[in-house]
């Protein structure tokens, strides 16, 4: 009986230890989730709080640089019209070099002045656009992190690039996708986002880095945005102006019946 009693006592002690460890792990997970949510809410406040959350439309103007094998080609001007949650029209260049890309949800069209052609976007192009919407910083901060099934994971201190440190959060979506956000510990503003993009049969590791924050209409916007794919820079966007909640005509998103109708 003595041996049985000792065995039962040992089993009971082990069960108590396991239960205590599980409780501690659950508490740690809860604490980390709270830290992650606090970082996101601090970033929203730093961006402009309710004014930032209340953005319905956005018009950005500036210069776009494409990079070939890490080397910048000459920049071209752009104007970008956004109607949240998933409508966007971007115009590049002027005259015979003008290019327009327009998307509404899962549909889209393009205009190429040099080719004198209007065409529907391919399924792959519209899929790529929707991935961009899902991973967009403003979408994640304003809506994405609270969508059904999304989970916040606190990652703590990170070094997003050499000798630069952040505090990071990963947003795991219900469909298996994710976005990692890095925040400046001093300003609370986003420094970088990381995610994976599926392009055809290839999956890439993408980074978007945010610099030179400027106040437009009471909201903080990054005016330099660098995009990296698999460790190599692919583009830089430099914003000269940003305006929010202006009325954007519906006709900008409608596909023209003829190139003469393109404005």
Key structural traits:
263 residues; alpha+beta; outer membrane lipoprotein receptor (LolB), chain A; 14-stranded antiparallel beta sheet; 45% strand; globular
Present the secondary structure layout:
Elements: H1 2-47, H2 50-53, E1 57-68, E2 71-72, E3 76-83, E4 87-92, E5 99-104, E6 107-112, E7 117-120, H3 123-135, H4 137-142, E8 151-161, E9 164-172, E10 178-183, E11 190-199, E12 202-216, E13 219-229, E14 232-244
Summarize the structure.
With 263 residues, this protein is of the alpha+beta class.
Descriptive account of the structure:
Strands 1, 2, 3, 4, 5, 6, 7, 8, 9, 10, 11, 12, 13 and 14 form a 14-stranded antiparallel β-sheet that branches. The protein has 263 residues and is of the alpha+beta class. It starts with a helix and ends in a 19-residue tail after the last strand. It contains four helices and 14 strands. 26% of the residues lie in helices and 45% in strands. The model has no long low-confidence stretch (mean pLDDT 90). It is globular, with a radius of gyration of 24 Å. The chain has helices at residues 2-47, 50-53, 123-135, 137-142; strands at 57-68, 71-72, 76-83, 87-92, 99-104, 107-112, 117-120, 151-161, 164-172, 178-183, 190-199, 202-216, 219-229, 232-244. It has one domain (43-261): Clam (outer membrane lipoprotein receptor (LolB), chain A), CATH 2.50.20.
């Amino acid at each position: 009986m003595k041996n049985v009693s000792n065995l039962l006592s040992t089993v009971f002690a082990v069960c108590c230890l396991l239960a205590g460890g599980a409780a501690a792990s659950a508490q740690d997970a809860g604490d980390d989730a709270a830290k992650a949510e606090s970082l996101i809410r601090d970033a929203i406040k730093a961006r402009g709080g309710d004014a930032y959350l209340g953005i319905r439309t956005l018009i950005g103007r500036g210069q776009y640089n494409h990079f070939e094998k890490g080397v910048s080609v000459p920049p071209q001007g752009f104007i970008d019209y956004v109607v949240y949650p998933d409508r966007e029209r971007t115009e590049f260049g002027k005259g015979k070099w003008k290019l327009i890309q327009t998307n509404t949800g899962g549909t889209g069209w393009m205009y190429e002045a040099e080719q004198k052609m209007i065409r529907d976007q391919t399924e792959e192009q519209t899929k790529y656009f929707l991935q961009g919407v899902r991973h967009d910083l403003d979408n994640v901060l304003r809506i994405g992190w609270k969508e059904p099934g999304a989970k916040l994971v606190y990652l703590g201190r990170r070094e997003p690039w050499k000798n630069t440190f952040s505090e990071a959060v990963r947003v795991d979506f219900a469909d298996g996708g994710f976005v990692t956000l890095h925040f400046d510990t001093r300003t609370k503003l986003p420094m970088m986002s990381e995610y994976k993009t599926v392009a055809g049969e290839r999956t890439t590791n993408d980074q978007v880095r945010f610099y030179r924050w400027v106040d437009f209409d009471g909201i903080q916007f990054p005016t330099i945005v660098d995009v990296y794919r698999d460790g190599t820079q692919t583009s830089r966007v430099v914003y000269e102006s940003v305006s929010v909640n202006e009325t954007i005509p519906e006709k900008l998103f409608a596909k023209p019946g003829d190139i003469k109708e393109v404005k």
